[in-house]
Amino acid sequence: MKENKRQNTSEKGNQQTTSEDKAKSKVQEYIEVIIIAILIAVVVRTFVVQAYKIPSQSMVPTLLVGDHLLVCKFLYGVKIPVLRRTIIPVVGPKRGDIVVFEYPMDRSKDYIKRVIGVEGDKIEIKNKNLFINDRLCRDAYAVHTDPHFYPAVVQPRDNYGPVVVPKGSLFVMGDNRDASYDSRYWGFVEMKDLEGKALFIYWSWNSENAKSLLEKVRWSRLGNILR
C-alpha cells in the first residue's frame, strides 16, 4: 500500500512538473514571438518604411494637415543609424521628389518639402518666379496665396538668390510657397539628413472642419500616390 501511495504521489509530481514545463514553454514561446516582432518592427522602421503625420500647411494643397504618409527609407540608400552614413547607395533624389528630412536647425524635428534643386543647380527667385539654372521653371505644384511681393532686403520669400546648391545638398521648398518655412530661410538640406521619399497617403483625418465622425475621414485622399 505504501508503495502504491508513493507511486501515485510520484506520478502526480511528474504530471505537475510536466504541466509547469509546458506552461513555461508557452510563456517562452510568447516572449520569443514578441521579441522577434519588436525586432522586425525596428528594422522595418529604421531601414524600410516609416509613417509620418503632416502637422502644418506648408505643403498645401498636395498635403493637408492630418494626412498620414508612408515614407520609403531605403530608396536613397541604406544608412547606418545614428551615424547617418550611407553604406548602400541606391538612387539620388530628383527635382520634384517629396522628401522627409531632419530639420537642420533642430534635429529633433522632421520636415517634409519638395526638392527644387540638386547639387550644382543655380537657384533664383524673382517676384515669386522660380529660375533654375537661369531658366524660368513652371512649377505645377507651386501655389501662391498672397498677392504681395516682398523685396529680398525684407525677407527671402519672393526674391531670393542666386545661389548654387553645394555638393551633397538639396534646395527644398513647400508647395504652399507663401506659407512655407524652407531653404529660402534656413539654407540647404544635406543628403545625410534625408529620411526618405514620401510614397502615398494611407490615412487622412480632418479634425477641424467636420461635423460627424465619418466626415472627419478624408476618404478621397486615402491611397493617393504622391507626385
Topology, element by element:
Blueprint: H1 2-48, E1 49-53, E2 67-72, E3 78-80, E4 85-88, E5 98-102, E6 110-117, E7 122-126, E8 129-132, E9 135-136, E10 160-164, E11 169-173, H2 183-186, E12 189-190, E13 194-204, H3 213-216
Antiparallel strand pairs: 1-2, 2-13, 3-4, 5-6, 5-13, 6-11, 7-8, 7-10, 8-9, 11-12
- List the secondary-structure elements in sequence, H or E: HEEEEEEEEEEEHEEH
Tell how many strands the DSSP assignment holds: 13
Strands across the major sheet, in which order?
1-2-13-5-6-11-12
How far apart lie the N and C ends?
85 Å
* Shape type: globular
Which structural class do the helices and strands define? Answer: alpha+beta
- The number of helical segments is 3
Radius of gyration: 27 Å
Bin the strand percentage.
25-35%
The overall pLDDT, averaged over residues, is: 85
Could you list the spans in which at least 5 consecutive residues all have pLDDT below 50?
A: none
Helix content: 10-25%
Major beta-sheet overview: 7 strands, antiparallel
List descriptors.
7-stranded antiparallel sheet; alpha+beta; 4-stranded antiparallel sheet; 227 residues
Task: Describe the fold and architecture.
It contains three helices and 13 strands, in the order H-E-E-E-E-E-E-E-E-E-E-E-H-E-E-H. It is of the alpha+beta class. The strands form three sheets. The chain has a seven-stranded antiparallel beta sheet. The longest helix has 47 residues, at 2-48. It is globular and about 80 Å long. It starts with a helix and ends in an 11-residue tail after the last helix. The model has no long low-confidence stretch (mean pLDDT 85).
